[in-house]
Amino acid sequence: MMQSYLFSEVSQWIDCEANISKDVHFSHLITDSRSVSDPQTSMFIAINGKNHNGHDYIESLYQQGIRCFLVEKDFQISEQLTEANFLKVNNALAALQQLVAFKRKKYNCPIIGITGSNGKTIVKEWISQMIGKSKVVVRSPKSYNSQIGVPLSVWQLNESCEVGVFEAGISLPGEMEKIASVIIPSIGVLTNIGAAHQKNFSSKAHKLKEKLNLFKDAQTIVYRADVDFIQNEIQQLYSGKNLFSWGKDKGCTIQIVSESLGANKASYTIQYLGKEDVLHFPFSDQASLENAMHAVACMLLLGYDISYINKSLKGLVPVAMRMELKEGINNCIIINDAYNSDLSSLAISLDFLVQQSKQRTSKRTLILSDIYQSGIEDDELCRQVNDMLMQKGIDKLIGVGSVLRTNANLFEIESSFFSSTDELLEKLSSQTIKDEAILIKGSRNFEFEKVTELLEKKHHQTSLEINLNALVDNLNYYRSKLNEGTKLLAMVKAFSYGSGSFEIANVLQHQKVDYLGVAFADEGVELRKAGISLPIIVMNPEAKSFPMMLAYKLEPEIYGFNELEQFVHILSQEGITEYPVHIKFDTGMNRLGFVEAEVPEIIQRLANAPEIRVKSVFSHLVGSDDAQFDDFTKNQILKFKEFTNKLKEALGYDFIKHILNSAGVLRFPDAQFDMVRLGIGMYGIGAVDQHKLRVVTRFRSYISQLKRVKANETVGYSRKGKLAYDAEIAVVPVGYADGLNRRLGNGVGQLMVNGQLAPILGNICMDMCMIDVTGLQTKEGDEVEIFGADNSVMDLAASLGTIPYEVFTSISRRVKRIYYYE
């Protein structure tokens, strides 16, 4: 159970100035103003970050019921916040870490701190899986391993906790020392040192030293001793500690004497404390074996015997570290987060459910299994779940397991309960589920993947994966380049560049962008029906859509006199005044927009049209991504500045001005004006700084059949595919009807299989293509990447002589979109 603390008591834990109106208890810490589940028992930490300032949301959070705040000293407390309590500090993030570090010192149970370049989350989850029901475990939710995530994780420690397992990640020198003082691990685990976040460190050795700062107060360090530079550094820094190593060398604490690798299994003969035993693993890939050995070492340290460990290893399952958003049957959406279940991760998943379901479906449903290892009495656990569901506005609960079923009377929303997943599946298969947003959240042994399979709309297996975290990271990268106060318009036209309209718009609304841009009115209407309330600019409005735009509060771009006259006429008929419009000025694109010769007339028309009010004025840059056009671009910016100055003087009021696109934000920062427009850059394509952007979309399929083809035989239509050698070809179920351009056939394009490029053979068919996989050690069912992190969409576009925009927007609607949120 989460501990409750008196506000005045906590004020003594940190260096602060306390302003207490009415002393109250709180138990939860929150740093995200959008994720409030229990305001009466929460304290909000107002962190001033690169892209958001938590102090801006305090009054809103006060209205929601929060009364405890940690703020920075320059925050001015308004008269409206009469019942609020404040801790004023120099730096909110540092104070959060200091606060949690004080609480951490109250607990003496084993605390495992995990760091490394890869595998941190998997090792953490596998340790928790292996401990199972034998002890109460508190662990980091998801991959909460940052400067903010670590203290929020450690804050969960409570009196019933028997083991704590927390991961720590860094991207900059000096960060680990701050995290180490919060976790204070008694057992440290180093997974490995790789290339992740390398750009901010001078070398791998430098990064290793920084990460090892986590273990300064640990009694024992677990690590793989086979890597010389890791072994040498740990020996040098921490020779006085208990170094609990594993590997093949004789000097290791756990020595791997021999190994046996099978197709999907492996076994290690190990020597530990002078005794030989055999470990059995349900996988054989090296990454999983390494992660599992870290977990095994921790289990031995905690006193578990080999028979228990082998039994636990047998039940290990892959860790899905991200939620999947999929299209469900009967107009449902399915959020699959069925790899673990605890209160912290449940709150995160429910936030995502609410975010993605606003007005899109008629009902929000949670399918939940019993929650293990909570350390909370069953009835109190169920009360907390009920309170969370009530607070989040969840309409229906479907519970699976004896605890939920026994405490059914504690739930105040529509509920049904089942003893087992099989019983639930039997019931669901005979029901009509329609227009629901369904979150599936369960402990692994409930096998909720069967529920997902039943409710998911069936598509062919070719899919487009959209990483919503990468999208947000790219958005924030561009935000970091903006001046304070510069607004941001995010373009979601053309089905969000092929990525999906309302799914992307929901995330952008959650991230508090200022405007959305669509091409046509029907795109804006679709977003409004999905619950998007942000201002939406229609960039290519048609006169016949004006009434629909008024009905759905869409704001038109005005680019010509005829369009202006028609829109003003409709507004006049409706008796509407000061309707927001956006004036397009053509500075050299020679596309839509008023030209320089029309400036006097447009000024006069706008000044005499009370039906409209100019909300923004903008123009399009022709070649902001290409240095050879820089002089032309600068001239465009100058023309735009002159036009907007004249218009502002004539109208007698100011308006938003914007000319920069994604490339312009990075290459012409002095021309930000009042707002910028972010389009393809948000999806990971940059004119500059490409290495700082993340891949958002991944188009993938699989090998449906392998076959041998003799030399000089042909492959595909019109006998275009011909090889001079005996070959093995793979049939991949993706074709030009899915968006795989037919011009990529006959060796022009290549697909990625098992880390190697395979050329496309012959003509691409409507629903499939063939690739040459000779010598690539493939099998039917292997994944094929059309484009993504390993097979760049820019390379694919270059093969076609086009741009990534065309590739993205050509992907058919019949291709299943899967949205990931880590």
What would you say this structure looks like, in words?
The structure is a single chain. 31% of the residues lie in helices and 23% in strands. It is built from 26 helices and 41 strands. It is globular.
Number of strands: 41
How far apart the termini lie comes to 26 Å
Share of residues in helices: 25-40%
Instruction: Identify low-pLDDT runs.
Output: none
**Shape, please?**
globular
Strand content: 15-25%
Largest sheet: 15 strands, mixed
Average pLDDT taken over every residue: 91
Strand order of the largest sheet: 21-20-19-22-18-17-41-23-32-40-37-38-39-36-33
Look at the helices and sheets and give the structural class. Answer: alpha/beta
> What Rg is obtained from the alpha carbons, in whole angstroms?
29 Å
Contiguous helical run count: 26
